[in-house]
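Researcher: Next entry: TetR family transcriptional regulator (Couchioplanes caeruleus).
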Amino acid sequence: MLLDTVSDSMLAWYRPQMPALVPRQERAPRAGEEVAVTPLPYRPGGGADRRAEAQGRLLEATVRLLADGASFTELGVQRITDAAGMSRSAFYTAFPDKTALLLRLTQDFQDQSAKLVTAWHSDDVAGLAALVSLYERLMALFRRHAVVWAALREVAAYDPDVRETRAAHVERLATGARARLLRDQQAGLVPASMDVDAAVTMVVWGGGEAMSRHLDTCDAGRDAIFAGELARIVWYGAFRRPAE
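Model: Predicted structure:
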């Protein structure tokens, strides 16, 4: 089930990092006089800073609208800028179009998920317990960004750029799974008869679709159960499939 509300900690994910406040002296101090230092509020100093701030506000507004039940397809630029308290022209200063906004919205958490998966694939001694932990962490990550993940899948159904970007992300995961299975196969831990490419497709693409279905239909209380079952299916069905 998708999020009903969006926490401040989740929204902070999409906000740009602002420089620290800079102290300012009002005038040169006289001899023996204490200096009063007043912190200045942050004001973007250059074009890059202004663009980053605008992007953060637009990303945050989009997440709020998605969490309120809007589909990404029906969100117009005007509605997003109204929610962000910005002008329509400011949107196009920050992003060339809505597709670019969506891809930026999904970039960081997809990179983090790839990092988690790659770490398991690269560790040849990581076993079932580590795989269960991996899926639990992935479920927590995707649960946190469920509305954004749903928007990505929604738009990928009709937008070739988004579809290709999503496919490239999945292929990053598939590359690691393929390498791990081939190493295990060479070590005699996986049957020589296994078709590694077919197994990788089922593990990576099939596992991703199963996770999406779970997020859409189940609450967070079942995430640990789901992660454990998926990990065991992947482990015993592929990485430690018994010899025939």
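Model: Note for the record: The longest helix spans residues 160-186.
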